[in-house]
Amino acid sequence: MLDRISDKFTDVIRSISGQARISEKNIEDAVEEIKIALLEADVNLRVVRRFVNRTIQEAKGDAVLKAVSPSQQFIKIINDRMVQLLGDTRQELQLKGPDTTSVILLYGLQGSGKTTTSVKLALELKNQGRRPMLAAADLVRPAAIQQLMILGEQHGIPVVADEKAKDPSKVAKSALQRAKKEQFDVLIVDTAGRMQADLDLMKELQGIKKVVDPVEALLVADAMTGQAAVDIAKTFHDQIGLTGVILTKFDSDTRGGAALSIKSITDQPIKYIGTGEKITDIEPFYPERIASRILGMGDVVSLVEKAQEAFDEQEAIELQKKMMSASFTLADYLDQFKKMKKMGSVESMLGMIPGLKAQEAAEAVDEGEMKREEAILLSMTLKERDNHLIIGPSRRKRIAKGSGTSVYDVNKLLKKFEKMRLMMKKMTKNKKYQQQLMRQFGG
Ligand SMILES: Nc1nc2c(ncn2[C@@H]2O[C@H](COP(=O)(O)OP(=O)(O)O)[C@@H](O)[C@H]2O)c(=O)[nH]1
Ligand SMILES: [Mg+2]
């Protein structure tokens, strides 16, 4: 799913996030890489141009170049632009209350996945407590009615069909009457496709739309066809009117061009994605989540926001001074635990770091050990935390008892702390490293 585009973007994000400070040249280079990635993903050229121009414009402002962490601000801009391309916020189906019947019409070309999707959607709505019914209004393909009836039966969704019918509008109309009479609150109408969006098809669909007055007219489009899917969406919207799009075969779409262009070109939101051949393989479409997937970062934006809340700039500078003068105490160490907590669990935090896969993150920290360390620190007196050198054998025993750990654990923590201080001292003797650290903290 979106593997290729995600690989490209992850590389770009990785290279940016490794930089303590960024120049206009860095921004231009990164945006150039992004442009290539988008074009390779088969994103509409106009959409790419707009994306690139806006990103550069925003990123070159003072808000980024003079920010505390410019690289993260820049990544946030890229992310926000990406979310915008994908349609900003989740767009739910606009169904009426359960006391009347809401009609959902599905359109699309042959093989795009209409019949499969109509059953997927019915099941999804059933699981939300709705009472859906299906209507077989594809009278073109001989086996279409059978296909829907079998799928419906397999999943306990009633299907209205008439194998002798000639007029799909009539089928749809009588299905609606039955749904109303039998108090089904959603009627999903599966329609016929064609190889192309020709005049015949448009007339047929307009006819159906008129008699059932749908609350949702959704185009079912094959994500793998890239720009073709976008063109089809535009044609259908111009000719019959859409309320949204369902992108199928998202599981096999490595490029993402359709997903990234549809909203900008047609102004129609993607409401669901089909993610496989099984009937349960359907997901609501969340622009933020897809953007994160493409950028290869769990959720870097909320990380930036949370980090800004937890660490203010002044605190960061003070902490850094302490590290450099080697007056970093156990109390400071404990303070870091509190900040980490404010930002959520360490694991979830690491999951948000760009380029770090969840698996690697989980291996990088042992959350159980962190809890143990915190308990030990909390069992110390203020004096002990300010000067770890006074913690002799009897104090160690008391701390171990108080924190429900062992003397071995206390010793381990103290050793680790000594090592940390030693490392800080060494690092701070290194001028180059010192400068880098200063920059990172905006000092
Ligand atoms: N991998 C994958 N296959 C799908 C998806 N949706 C539909 N298909 C397959 O696409 C083919 C055509 O589907 P169908 O519903 O008959 O298309 P229709 O002609 O538009 O009604 C079938 O083999 C489906 O299993 C999807 O989201 N992912
Ligand atoms: Mg079909």
From TrEMBL:
CDD domains on file: SRP_G
Enumerate the SUPFAM superfamilies for this protein: P-loop containing nucleoside triphosphate hydrolases, Signal peptide-binding domain
Query: GTP-binding: is it a keyword of this entry?
Result: yes
Q: InterPro entries, alphabetically?
A: AAA+_ATPase, P-loop_NTPase, Signal_recog_part_SRP54_M_sf, Signal_recog_particl_SRP54_hlx, Signal_recog_particle_SRP54_M, SRP, SRP54, SRP54_GTPase_dom
Spell out the Pfam families in the cross-references: SRP54 (PF00448), SRP54_N (PF02881), SRP_SPB (PF02978)
Q: Which domain of life is it from?
A: Bacteria
Nucleotide-binding recorded as keyword: yes
Provide the family line.
Belongs to the GTP-binding SRP family. SRP54 subfamily.
Domain comment text? Composed of three domains: the N-terminal N domain, which is responsible for interactions with the ribosome, the central G domain, which binds GTP, and the C-terminal M domain, which binds the RNA and the signal sequence of the RNC.
Q: What is this protein called?
A: Signal recognition particle protein
Biological source species: Spirochaeta lutea
As recorded in Swiss-Prot or TrEMBL, the protein's gene is named ffh
